[in-house]
Amino acid sequence: SSDELTRAELLSLMNLPKLEIEHFEGDPVVYHSFFAAFDEHVEKVSNNPRIKLTRLLQCTKGKAKDAIRGCQITGGEKGYLDAREILRKRFGNDHLIANRIIDSLKSGKSIKTPEELQCLADELTTCQATLSSMNKLREVDTQSSIIQIANRLQPYLKGRWKRQAMEMKREKD
What we know:
By secondary structure, the chain is mainly α. It has helices at 2-14, 31-43, 49-58, 62-68, 71-74, 76-91, 94-107, 114-133, 143-150, 155-172. The chain has 10 helices and no strands.
């Protein structure tokens, strides 16, 4: 029955190792991913605003924690909602986040090693997901932005990228 499945799922969940959410220190670039994890593992699990506020304080550090520390005095639902709003206003501005991500992609250090190229590929994947979720992908999907990102590559890789781009242009105009 569906009750047995729910019990089995509950037992399975209880046997999972303790989950740790990466601390949020106030970096706007990771704001959305932090709250996606926080909402999935705290917000959905607890209805008690005091517990959620305590967890939010435990999961923050540095300037993010300093910004919401006073909400603990207010406590309860108001303290929790105030803390979320403070973090959203201070670190969750989509325009600020998109600008930081795009600037990082365009002006990062020159790529010299295969490991650095893999890091750039990982960064591009993460940035694509983040900007897509914010409906800001079009801000980096411009010819000038792509050229600036490609300029971080070594001459050999730039040449290969240009050849690939030209082939795609011929195929798809």
